[in-house]
Hints:
The complex is a heterodimer.
Chain A: E1 6-9, H1 12-15, H2 20-33, E2 36-39, H3 53-70, E3 74-76, H4 79-93, H5 96-106, E4 116-118, H6 119-127, H7 129-135, E5 144-148, H8 170-177, E6 181-182, H9 201-217, E7 222-225, H10 228-236, H11 238-245, E8 253-255, H12 256-263, H13 268-271, H14 281-284
Parallel strand pairs in A: 1-2, 1-3, 3-4, 5-6, 5-7, 7-8
Helix pairs in contact in A: 2-12, 3-4, 3-5, 6-7, 9-11
Chain B: H1 17-22, H2 38-42, H3 44-48, H4 54-63, H5 66-70, H6 83-87, H7 94-110, H8 120-134, H9 139-157, H10 160-168, H11 182-194
The structure holds iron/sulfur cluster (2 copies).
One iron/sulfur cluster binds next to helix 2 and helix 4 of chain B.
Amino acid sequence: MNLAYTFAYYPGCYLHASAGEYDMSTMAVCELLGIQLIELDDWNCCGALEASNPLTLSLSARNLALAEKEGLDILAPCSICFNNLSRANNAVRGGGRTKTIINKATGENYQGEVEVRHLLDVIVNDIGLDNISNAVKVPLEGLRSVPYYGCLTIRPSDVSKFEDPEIPRSLDDIIEALGADCLQFKHKKDCCGGNLLLSSEDFSLQITKEILSEAKELGADCVTVACPLCHAMLDYQQSKIESKYDIVIDLPILYFTQLMGLALGLREKELGLNKNFVSTVKLRRR
Amino acid sequence: MLENPDVIDASNLDPTFKYDISTQLGGENIKRCFQCGTCVASCPIWTIDEGFNPRKIIRMALLGMKEEVLSSEFIWFCSRCYACYEQCPQDVRITELMGAIASIAEREEKDGNIKIRSTKPILDKAFVNSIRKYGRNFETETIISGVLATKGIKGLLSYVSDGFAMLRKRKLGFRPEKVKELGQIGGIFEALEEK
Ligand code: SF4
Ligand code: SF4
């Protein structure tokens, strides 16, 4: 077992429910690239965007404490989980009153030894682009994709430390390493508004419409994302946006792990490509 | 009543409000704000609705306009995108600050001092209840109870086709996933409520 690439896998609630295809494609791609994922035993919800700060930090810290006992770093594919777990880590490492509140709430004695890594970070920076290119079996030649980073994958930079919040590159680089064309995308760092979907639906849909419209105008074949909430907005809400604004978008939205899987020769079933709402058939039968 | 509703009545200001905020987790840096407006320019919600202006909310809070701030629907419009947080020259950490203000609003509503004008905290509550019950979010139940509480039966019915689409894709389950050490999860909630 190569410990360098062994992680406590933190799928989070979305990957076990509405983002099942992200879970499946993560596990399939990681296995192929030699990243060993051991699901964190008895993990709990990080608090997502819904819990208040003290609660989110404490819930997240319980997971960190579990990983610390196992002696493993955490790998999280969901950018919301990644943000919360990392913020909790920063809070504990900062010590003082916040650390006391957190450890008192969890009843654990977490010391901040665990690193929290985003899946995208591990794939680009640990495995590396050369190894990804070398593993490509079916180059995605002629496929045009736009990278969409959204918010929590790259911001804030004192929490997400692996990317440049102004000029993020990791998704761009992956798209290119797979042999596809990466298009310049102005909306790549914009918010999808997903957090407001149920309380202020008009805001969320309008924001997401702008993102989808640019991708459509650019002539992209798909949008590549790294967060389940971005995916839900761009993919699941796409038909609602089409009918609300009377426009046609019809643009497949892929998790970067699904796009990788296509190029690495993984089977469609392993990538959950039939779970996406906007049909991915065009991409599969290229 | 003031003749001009835009004029601030100084006798209604609560100068302790800023201290209340700065002792909340996330609100620590509010007093650093020097009103440059960089946050506004980076805010995606402001571009849609100019009524949502983070600089103005901070100014009002610093002035002590407690009731106006806490009962404004705008404090629930923040999408938590961290665009302002990243740009602010004074490291006010606005995104976390908005969360701190929202927490105070919930507390003040519980104490009967203000009325919240947004469904956001009710929806969030449905999610948090699920964590308390199971340790994880049971999406199916969270969505149903959240929509029911905020939009009623009629509202819920309007989501039926969405729900079926999710079920067809096997994206929603019928059973919650449960954490084994649920007592520890309950302990977290209790410890934070005590405080
Ligand atoms: S960017 Fe920072 S300093 Fe400038 S107005 Fe906003 S919060 Fe205040
Ligand atoms: S974090 Fe909130 S206030 Fe700041 S830019 Fe985003 S939506 Fe606006």
